[in-house]
């Protein structure tokens, strides 16, 4: 039996478009909120990776390392990990030393031109600071230095001890405040700034 293809009537098309519009109007804002919330939750891991890398590279290369924060256009912090091989005449401090860069190895690197080049990570993919608010302690600190054994170099003044990330009001119901603390042994860990001792999630004093 011969069957004829039936098209859509104008009313069916209009109803279909209206339903699609409603679905998009409801779904897109929720999807956008979900994506931003998940990026905010992952922000602490972004910084934890850098702190862990800085300590690991110091130990692996028997060198000094530093983790440096730099504010970027969205109000978050890019980070970079540098290495320095101390010499008798030129120690590795916050204002002296032949530190590696993203394009060149540090002088004294035993691996020569194939040695360690600084690792840079951009925070441009993180939510902007009007959504996720970063703060550092002590105020204005932007770096932490590690010794060859992976311990924090306490001779560096105003070293970074904590990085805190607070959600803006719009995300407060979905994202908890988070912080990263670094012990004198160089171990970085996530903690909950809202928790109080003896809660194991509380940040160290």
TrEMBL record:
Transmembrane domains' residue ranges: 7-28
Membrane recorded as keyword: yes
Record keywords, A-Z: Membrane, Transmembrane, Transmembrane helix
Pfam families for this protein: N_methyl
Signal sequence, start to end: none
PROSITE patterns assigned to the protein according to its UniProt record, in alphabetical order: PROKAR_NTER_METHYL
SUPFAM superfamilies listed in its UniProt record: Pili subunits
UniProt entry tagged with the keyword DNA-binding: no
NCBIfam families for this protein: IV_pilin_GFxxxE (TIGR02532)
The protein, known as: Type IV fimbrial biogenesis protein FimT
Phylogenetic placement of the source organism: Bacteria, Pseudomonadati, Pseudomonadota, Betaproteobacteria, Burkholderiales
């Amino acid at each position: 039996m011969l069957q004829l293809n039936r098209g859509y009537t104008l009313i069916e098309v209009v109803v279909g478009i209206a339903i699609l519009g409603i679905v998009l109007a409801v779904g897109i804002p929720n999807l956008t909120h979900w994506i931003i919330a998940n990026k905010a939750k992952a922000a602490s891991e972004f910084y934890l990776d850098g702190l862990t890398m800085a300590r690991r590279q110091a130990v692996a290369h028997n060198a000094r390392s530093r983790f440096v924060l730099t504010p970027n256009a969205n109000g978050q912090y890019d980070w970079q990990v540098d290495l320095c091989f101390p010499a008798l005449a030129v120690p590795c401090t916050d204002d002296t030393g032949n530190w590696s860069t993203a394009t060149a190895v540090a002088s004294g690197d035993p691996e020569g031109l194939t040695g360690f080049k600084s690792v840079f990570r951009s925070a441009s993919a993180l939510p902007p600071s009007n959504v996720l608010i970063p703060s550092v302690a002590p105020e204005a600190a932007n770096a932490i230095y590690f010794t060859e054994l992976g311990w924090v170099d306490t001779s560096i003044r105003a070293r970074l001890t904590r990085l805190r990330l607070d959600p803006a009001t719009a995300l407060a119901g979905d994202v908890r405040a988070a912080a990263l603390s670094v012990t004198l042994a160089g171990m970085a860990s996530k903690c909950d700034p809202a928790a109080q001792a003896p809660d194991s999630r509380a940040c160290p004093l």
